[in-house]
Amino acid sequence: MSWRIRPARPDDLDAVMRLERTSFPTDAWSTAQMREEFRSPYGHYVVAETTDEAPEPVLVGYAGFSSLPGGHDGDVQTIAVAADHRGQGLGRALFRELLDEAARRDVREVFLEVRADNPVAQAMYRSFGFEAIGTRPRYYQPDDVDALVMRGAVRDRTTGGTA
Fold it and tell me: Which residue in 16, 29, 40, 67 could disulfide with 74, CB within 3.0 to 4.6 Å?
């Protein structure tokens, strides 16, 4: 199955929320929270949609990033991939798009939280050079799951060095 990544639009909100609730059943963001993220001038949200579905593309992933103007750090807000599209490189492609946006914004470091019980996501972030720098105890509620805080340097896509 093939897909493409494009900027999120306001009319993607319902499909994003369906995937949000499926991906994070116990701690999904509210529609109001996600709508505000989409509207934020500091955010960059993208969606992944299938390119071979008829009659219309199907949203199968999304990701969001945020940074303040003039700042040199940013945060991965969220990444989700539909269960039937996991393991195909889509999560990596979405994450790479967020890092590319960070480089375009002259961000030098990116931070994120990942569930301590999600070794697959942790391994993906480590493969991009991210390292664990701390823990937020019981961060994910109501599951009482710790968050692993990770940090990574943004690579300049033109020179290969750190931005």
Answer: 67
